[in-house]
Amino acid sequence: TVLFHQGDPGKNWYIILRGSVDVSIHGKGVVCTLQEGDDFGKLALVNDSPRAATITLREDHAQFLTVDKHDFNRILRDVEANTVRLKEHGQDVLVLEKINLPRGAAIEGGLTNTGKGHCW
């Protein structure tokens, strides 16, 4: 079963809760398989562009968390409003969690891994 075709308009972001999907590109065939916990569909929403690949279900009973374009854009705005951009080794680093420290306190040795959030 095809979820959407390459060239279709982007309407949703998907997170795979159960099952797996094949990602196919015209002229290349299946380029990868995504599984539980993987997500797809962001590119078309972020760039307001057509789908870059065709997504085909590998199992009939796959389950997804689906976020529509409106909610996806709202989530992005909220994340951007609550993030901190830092310069580290000459590159921008996006920290998805602000750490509240007492006034005048510093993190010794630079940034530390709190075990929460992600940097990318």
UniProtKB/TrEMBL annotation:
SMART domains associated with the record: cNMP
InterPro entries in UniProt: cNMP-bd_dom, cNMP-bd_dom_sf, RmlC-like_jellyroll
Domain Cyclic nucleotide-binding, chain residue ranges per copy: 1-76
Coiled-coil region: none
Transmembrane spans: none
CDD domains in the record: CAP_ED
Signal peptide: none
Protein name: Cyclic nucleotide-binding domain protein
